[in-house]
Amino acid sequence: MHERIAFLALSLAILSCGTVDDGHRPPITVEDRSTEFTDLRFGMFVCWSFSTFSDVEWTRDVEDISYFAPTGCDVDQWCRTAADAEMGYLLFLTKHHDGFCLWDTDTTDWKVTNGPLGMDVLAEVRRQCDAHGLKLALYFSEGDWTWPEWKDPAKKKAQLAELLTRYGPIEYIWFDHAQTDGGLSHAETVAFCKSLQPTCLIGFNHGEPAGDLRLGEYGSPTALDDATGAGYGAQDASSYTGYVAAEFTYPILGVPRNRWFYTNPKWDDHCRSAEEIHATYLEAVETRNVFSLDVGPDRAGRLRDIDVHTLVEVGRYIRGEIEPPPPPLSQGVTCSASGTWRDEPEFGPAMAVDGSPHTRWGAPEEARSGSLDVDLGEPRTVGRVVIDEGDWDRVRRFEVQYERRDLWFTLFSGERIGRLDRVIDPIEARNFRLVIHEANEVPTILEFQLFAPRE
């Protein structure tokens, strides 16, 4: 009871102070803000909390906040890397569904300043964003497991009031609706946030359409009035007219499954390629979408070396300092398959060589094996093979083959695919084949691509 009275008093005190002084810009219209927002183009989504230490995305049943025990917190490295990658902002996770607050809140003792780290991480993020010329955006789980039935509208308001009055201008808030709206409807949430920072843009990953931004969780760049492929829960702008811009996000750690948080060290040499990220960036620029690439710091509070290397390379591509490698030899060529999911063209073999990680080939409904054949049109020298299974992790035994004089030879084989990027001894051939000998569900492949040897 005393805690509830305290944070209600806090909310009233904060609100009595009026809205935050943006300082950085004069009053502007929503249309101006939409242009300003889309001009950001690219940013880093930072997920760092209990799940960094659990190897699972939702970490339940934590009884002691000392569970979050990083050995450091190098926010300077996060922001420096973002700036090197030509990112315009940091989207920081302030609170996940577990209710653990990464700022020095007065609403609960379940916060980072009471744990082993003992620092207000969000305050340091704000400071380093300013130092590196980055804007700041916030992720916030609307409801959390520490609240009765995951709902406490007074506490939700009090926490948002702190975030929007203590940490300077916020570009946008990425609301996660996975654990309900927290007892405050989306329309009420938008109105409350705008009363504190009128120029802060608001988006919800699903649930009641509201706010300014169409968010795309696990999404891809699409026009604002076309939500096809935009991501989980994305609402088409034709069914809700309040959107002024589109954002989408996916994780840099795409294997063996997409992971928002750092997972265990055995995956520390796995990362989406700079080429894939840069290609998505170019699509985002073309469609006027904003691309939030999730990069989860590790248990020492640092980005993995492979993430830093990859993002620095992306930045060099964006600045034109180096040319991206040529597209795959196999992109757009003739591709056939042993069968297709329900004979639907959208899951046909051509989807595995179209150069997009957002489309895929699917085998027939009852299949637990299958094959893809790629015809390069003429003999070409191949030195690298990329196979992307996406989030499904279904293949249990596979083989890549090449054909000469009507005979098929094994190039390499394995048990699981995930996202495989294999440099091989150069081989010249016209026809290549991916044979899936065994899968635990219907095989599905996002990309089966062949590349010339790297120089």
Please render the helix and strand layout as text.
Blueprint: H1 2-16, H2 30-38, E1 42-46, H3 75-84, E2 89-95, H4 121-131, E3 135-141, H5 153-166, E4 172-176, H6 186-196, E5 201-204, E6 213-217, E7 245-251, H7 274-287, E8 289-294, H8 305-319, E9 334-337, E10 361-362, E11 370-388, E12 395-404, E13 407-414, E14 419-439, E15 444-445, E16 447-451
Parallel strand pairs: 1-2, 1-8, 2-3, 3-4, 4-5, 5-6, 6-7, 7-8
Antiparallel strand pairs: 9-11, 10-15, 11-14, 11-16, 12-13, 12-14
Helix pairs in contact: 1-5, 3-8, 5-6, 7-8
What descriptors fit this protein?
455 residues, alpha/beta, TIM Barrel, Jelly Rolls, 2 domains, 8-stranded parallel barrel, elongated, disordered N terminus
Protein architecture, described:
The protein has 455 residues and is of the alpha/beta class. The protein has 2 domains: 2-319, TIM Barrel; 334-451, Sandwich (Jelly Rolls). 22% of the residues lie in helices and 26% in strands. It has helices at 2-16, 30-38, 75-84, 121-131, 153-166, 186-196, 274-287, 305-319; strands spanning 42-46, 89-95, 135-141, 172-176, 201-204, 213-217, 245-251, 289-294, 334-337, 361-362, 370-388, 395-404, 407-414, 419-439, 444-445, 447-451. The strands form 3 sheets. An 8-stranded parallel barrel has the order 1-2-3-4-5-6-7-8, surrounded by 5 helices. Strands 9, 11, 12, 13, 14 and 16 form a 6-stranded antiparallel β-sheet that branches. A two-stranded antiparallel ribbon has the order 10-15. β7, α7 (274-287) and β8 (289-294) form a beta-alpha-beta unit. α5 runs parallel beside α6.
